[in-house]
Amino acid sequence: MESFKKYTLLLLLGAICFQETAIAQQSGAKEIDLEYFISKAELTSPLIKDFGNQLLINKIDSLRIRAGYRPQVTASSTGLYAPRINGYGFDEVMTNGQSLDALLNVDYNLFGKNLKENQLKGLKLQRDSLNYAVGISKLDIVKSITQQYIQAYDSQQQVTFNLDVLSLLKKEESVLKELTRRNVYRQSEYLTFLVTYKQQQLLHNLAELQFQSDFATLNYLSGINDSTTFVLKEPQLNQEINSTINSSFFTKRFEIDSLKAVNDKEAVDLSYKPKINLYANGGYNSSLVLQPYKNFGASIGFKFLMPIYDGNQKKMQRDRITLQSKTSSAYRGFFINQKAQQIMMLRQQIDATQTLTQQIKEQIKFSKGLIDVNTQLLHTGDVKITDFVVAINNYLAAQNALRQSNINHMKLISQFNYWSR
Prior knowledge:
The protein has 2 domains: 2-69 and 112-272 and 307-419, Outer membrane efflux proteins (OEP) (Up-down Bundle); 73-111 and 279-306. It is 67% helix and 11% strand. The protein contains 10 helices and 6 strands, in the order H-H-E-H-H-E-H-E-H-H-E-H-E-E-H-H. The chain has helices at residues 2-13, 23-27, 34-44, 46-68, 92-95, 113-181, 187-222, 252-271, 313-380, 385-419; strands at residues 31-32, 72-81, 98-109, 231-232, 275-286, 296-305. A 4-stranded antiparallel beta sheet has the order 2-3-5-6, with no helix packed on it. Helix 6 packs antiparallel against helix 10. The longest helix has 69 residues, at 113-181. The radius of gyration is 40 Å and the shape is elongated.
């Protein structure tokens, strides 16, 4: 009986030296990291592709505006024949009976430089806005993928944890069954252990299903169409310690909106400036009545336009832009305040998680000490095997709590890095 006790003790002590065994060592599966999923998500994102195409369109629009302020050359031709039959028909004084022209026209806006620069500046601001949208989209991808990766990694660690505990209990089951037959332990103790063993099998199956679900969600968010399950490496996340609440990434959109408002007001002012267009044409223009072979020629001219009164629409447009600017400023102030609170809250939670981690480590230390004491008592028969198993379960529960605390810490670091941009 003493030899059986020693053998059982050796099996139970294996739990004290519990080490998380990588799934890769168990299945030989390929390991992949967080960057793999982030790069896939950015590559397949239709939103980023959309913004990329909009940037190309913006470049084309810029070239088109520049071309529009160069001299515009067009060719035109018209012909007319108005017959009179028995004195009936259009008045020849009005129609000349027939006419033909074929002209080459040149049109040029003499004072269009300021308006062109205003439109080009508007396109640049649009380009800056699109570049910001690309940046925020990539940042959102990193945030969502990182959060899901951590979730899947946690599920993977839970599978490993349950598998190691299940392996230990499986070894104990056959030994305790034999010792129960020898009346070393009571039947009730063995049945209690058997219930624990079966429950652990169920927990392991549930953990595997959860990991498969979390991994499938990770693939879905990354745009990966693959049912193969890989092993996830531990995410390496570093807190952005140099980031400040006043970092300008998120507030850049408000700066762009402010510059757009200035540019829009300038566009309104320019639309009320006098405009002069020069034009010239040359070619053939004839009524075909008198010496039509001599009707080749050319002409030049200008067109002057100056707004005088439009019902005070200029002031209305400027007031409208001003109100939009005030709205944007209000959103900016609210966002900065909310961001400051968010970063402060995350810092507090990160500090609290670190404190909790230290407390859990202390708990692990005490749990291990209790196991050492029970081990000595087990040699003398002064402790029940069930009490020793409870001590081991407490130790394993503390190890599990430590892993969960580390996972929560990773998630908080991910959120902090997002808002600290």
